[in-house]
């Protein structure tokens, strides 16, 4: 059986034979040839050795691929975590208020949404004419403009605002304030309180009236960035 012709044909078939893809008839011929031919036996041994090594290579690549995949998953999880942490962080330093009512017209209208800057008053004190969001009346949020600072005396006379007896020149309350409320007489502001007004003073419940009254500093939620 051993001759150059059959060996070259068998050799071409051996890779297929190793993978069990040859027909039953071919298998018989190949097997009987292998039993007799040393060269083809050596060849098929080297083939199966290569296949085994190939498997090892494949396993190694699979391992590497798995590692890369794991790293990707870790990165994705990390990014998702970072995303949630930043959202929670952002909620600590900002918030959104949807304004109801028209007490801050014309600067702010009913339904307007604003970001609340919650961090600024940890850096500096609230200033005159800042628009602030504060809690009052059992936790409800209100949005008004600061007019009087801690320690000042505020009075509203003939439609105009006076701080410590001085007329408060400003661009926000151009119209006469028709209702002075409690500020018809001088109102002394406490050391950690603010006197606030709605820009639309004819349609605003603010420091002139209960229940809002003077705003305690610890009830201020933050500042709204608006002129
Ligand atoms: Zn042979």
Give the strand order, joined by hyphens, for the main sheet: 1-2-11-3-4-9-10
How big is the Rg? 42 Å
| H/E series | HHHEEHEEEEEEEEE
**What portion of residues is helical?**
25-40%
Point out poorly predicted stretches. Answer: none
By secondary-structure content and strand pairing, the structural class works out as alpha+beta
How many discrete domains?
2
Describe the structure.
With 227 residues, this protein is α+β, with helices and mostly antiparallel strands. The chain has two domains: 61 residues; 126 residues, Ribbon (Umud Fragment, subunit A), CATH 2.10.109. It is built from four helices and eleven strands, in the order αααββαβββββββββ. The protein has a seven-stranded antiparallel β-sheet with strand order 1-2-11-3-4-9-10. A four-stranded antiparallel β-sheet has the order 7-6-5-8, with no helix packed on it. The longest helix has 56 residues. The model has no long low-confidence stretch (mean pLDDT 89).
What is the topology?
Blueprint: H1 4-18, H2 24-36, H3 38-93, E1 94-98, E2 113-117, H4 120-123, E3 131-136, E4 140-148, E5 153-157, E6 160-163, E7 166-167, E8 187-188, E9 193-197, E10 215-216, E11 220-224
Antiparallel strand pairs: 1-2, 2-11, 3-4, 3-11, 4-9, 5-6, 5-8, 6-7, 9-10
The structure holds zinc ion.
How would you summarize what this structure contains?
With 227 residues, this protein is an alpha+beta fold.
């Amino acid at each position: 059986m051993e001759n150059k012709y059959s060996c070259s044909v068998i050799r071409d078939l051996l890779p297929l034979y190793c993978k069990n893809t040859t027909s039953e008839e071919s298998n018989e011929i190949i097997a009987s040839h292998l039993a007799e031919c040393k060269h083809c036996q050596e060849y098929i041994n080297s083939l199966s050795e290569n296949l085994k090594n190939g498997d090892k290579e494949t396993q190694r690549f699979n391992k590497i691929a798995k590692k890369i995949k794991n790293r990707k998953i870790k990165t994705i999880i990390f990014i998702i975590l970072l995303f949630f942490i930043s959202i929670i962080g952002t909620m600590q330093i900002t918030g959104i208020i949807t304004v109801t009512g028209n007490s801050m017209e014309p600067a702010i209208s009913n339904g307007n949404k604003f970001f609340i800057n919650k961090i600024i008053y940890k850096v500096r004190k609230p200033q005159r004419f800042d628009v602030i969001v504060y809690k009052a009346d059992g936790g409800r949020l209100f949005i008004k403009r600061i007019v009087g600072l801690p320690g000042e005396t505020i009075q509203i006379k003939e439609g105009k605002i006076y701080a410590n007896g001085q007329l408060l020149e400003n661009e926000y309350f151009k119209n006469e304030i028709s209702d002075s409320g409690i500020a018809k007489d001088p109102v002394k502001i406490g050391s950690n309180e603010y006197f606030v007004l709605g820009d639309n003073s004819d349609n605003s419940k603010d420091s002139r009236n209960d229940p809002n009254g003077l705003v305690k500093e610890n009830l201020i939620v933050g500042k709204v960035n608006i002129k």
